[in-house]
Amino acid sequence: MFTGIIETLGYVENLKRAGGNLDIIVRTPLAKELKIDQSVAHNGVCLTVVNIKDDVYTVTAIEETLSKTNLGNLKIGDYINIERAMKLGARLDGHIVQGHVDQTAICTEAEEKDGSWIYSFTYDNSFSNVTIEKGSITVNGVSLTVVNSKDNSFSVAIIPYTYNNTNFKNLSVGDTVNLEFDVIGKYVKRLNELRQ
Length: 196
Fold this sequence. Notes:
Number of helices: 3
Structural class: mainly beta
Shape: globular
Distance between the termini: 31 Å
Helix content: 10-25%
Oligomer: single chain
């Protein structure tokens, strides 16, 4: 489980294909605090640490993960949002995040507004995922509040701290992002469907 509060950015130092899998080699000072077999969220995708050396570690994304997230689009030199799993008993500063990406979305607008930023996204609503006004959404692993919720689009407002400390500062119109919809909302929606 995660909170959507990004701890640091990781630099994609290398990418290695192994069959249908992709080894992602990440450089970050946080690597020294990790352990083999630990779960870490990368742009909101929960992956297992398989190797660590100094300030570099490796995770593997399988073909299923690559087909449903933006990790297959990574390039050497990219920066990804990193969050370790939450500690039981710690404050839940964001919202409950599983690290299981539901689908991707396309950034349709990135606008600076007097010291903050508004980002808008469209997504395929055939997956039956929904947003609600002032509800929670995870975009590339970042816990955010939905504004301007529509059937297949929504916006989020980014404060300067989030902009400067996540990969939102590198996000452009046309880029693909990972979405994890609110887990409580997903259960409520599913229970409602079963009652009909």
